[in-house]
């Protein structure tokens, strides 16, 4: 069974919050044709999208064509809106969470949902996380790598992480509002350099601050193979070694990094092998970044090409790890396996 852990979705009829609340930073959907739209921010095109990003039917068509049994749906990070007043950001979160929950409800065998919360207000974020996982049947929460320039080790977020651990809510950390934005507009470096660096900073902040030591059962995963974090981890260890006066943890960073999960989206068998060698095959989850331009097509292509992996290891990376990370029940795993086998038999018969 193949589970694409990293895919994004947005409501086709996302309300115009700029008109309602007055700020121009809200993302607005501007339709360009029957099968496409521009996501506008501040009157400028932020991203061109197709109906793949809102249509469950189009997604399922692509999934069947590319061999994906289940997509894990998460919001597009530009909609996090941590900069906004918390009540307005909550309204944006609730619209998306309701939409994702409804999409999953209508297609329970093909989708699993992650929610979003207004992290700029910890108490409001906790209440919406509660609603997501205990009322909307979402399986986790996607959060950004910083909150208005504050790293994830901000004291304001401690209670959020505490409740995520208490309720066993998996967190998917995705880069947004990346560092050095003034230096990365050219060449689209925000996506290829800024995002991996931003992810590394988020991961390092969670470890060095002691959050991962304080909440050892907290489930955390990172987009894009963890960005540059896996490759600078030895340097973080060296810093911990030579600066004892800065230590806030009992063990060096690599000790706590073993608890992290990563999607597989780094395009290269050598990089996937490095992730597996450092963290284990049970910590890597297939992720494609569907439906955006930088996505892997078909999902899992690199993993499939790796002859050094056993079929069992590939099975964990391609599906089992995501289901385990998200606390998906054994019944749903079995149902998903049956649906997977049924689709494969249909494909073989040519029907």
UniProtKB/TrEMBL annotation:
One of its GO terms (biological process) is secondary metabolic process. One of its GO terms (molecular function) is metal ion binding. Residues 3-327 form the Amidohydrolase-related domain. Gene3D superfamilies: Metal-dependent hydrolases. Keywords: Decarboxylase, Lyase, Metal-binding, Zinc. It is an enzyme of class 4 (lyase). It holds the Pfam family Amidohydro_2. The keyword Oxidoreductase does not apply. Monomer. This is 2-amino-3-carboxymuconate-6-semialdehyde decarboxylase. It comes from Scopulibacillus darangshiensis.
């Amino acid at each position: 069974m193949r589970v694409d852990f990293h895919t994004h979705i947005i409501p086709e009829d996302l309300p115009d919050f700029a008109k309602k609340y007055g700020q121009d930073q809200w993302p607005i959907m501007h339709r360009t044709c029957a099968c496409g739209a521009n996501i506008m921010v501040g009157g400028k095109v932020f991203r061109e999208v197709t109906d793949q990003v809102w249509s469950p039917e189009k997604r399922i068509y692509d999934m069947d064509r590319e061999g994906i049994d289940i997509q894990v749906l998460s919001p597009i990070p530009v909609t996090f809106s941590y900069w906004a007043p918390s009540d307005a950001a909550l309204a944006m979160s609730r619209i998306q969470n309701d939409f994702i929950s409804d999409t999953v409800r209508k297609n329970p065998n093909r989708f699993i949902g992650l929610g979003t919360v207004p992290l700029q207000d910890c108490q409001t974020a906790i209440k919406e996380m509660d609603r997501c996982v205990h009322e909307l049947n979402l399986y986790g929460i996607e959060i950004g790598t910083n909150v208005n320039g504050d790293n994830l080790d901000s004291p304001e977020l401690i209670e959020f992480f505490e409740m995520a651990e208490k309720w066993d809510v998996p967190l998917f950390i995705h880069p947004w509002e990346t560092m050095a934005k003034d230096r990365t507009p050219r060449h689209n470096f925000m996506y290829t350099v800024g995002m991996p660096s931003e992810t590394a900073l988020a991961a390092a902040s969670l470890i060095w601050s002691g959050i991962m030591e304080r909440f050892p059962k907290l489930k955390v995963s990172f987009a894009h193979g963890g960005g540059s974090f896996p490759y600078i981890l030895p340097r973080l260890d060296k810093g911990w070694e030579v600066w004892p006066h800065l230590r806030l943890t009992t063990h060096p960073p690599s000790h706590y990094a073993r608890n992290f999960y990563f999607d597989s989206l780094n395009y290269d068998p050598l990089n996937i092998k490095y992730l597996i060698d450092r963290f284990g095959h049970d910590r890597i989850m297939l992720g494609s970044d569907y439906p955006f331009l930088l996505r892997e097509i078909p999902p899992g292509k690199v993993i499939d090409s790796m002859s050094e992996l056993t079929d069992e290891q590939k099975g964990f990376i391609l599906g089992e790890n995501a289901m385990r990370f998200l606390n998906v029940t054994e019944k749903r795993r079995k149902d998903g396996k049956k649906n997977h086998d049924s689709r494969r038999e249909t494909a073989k018969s040519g029907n």
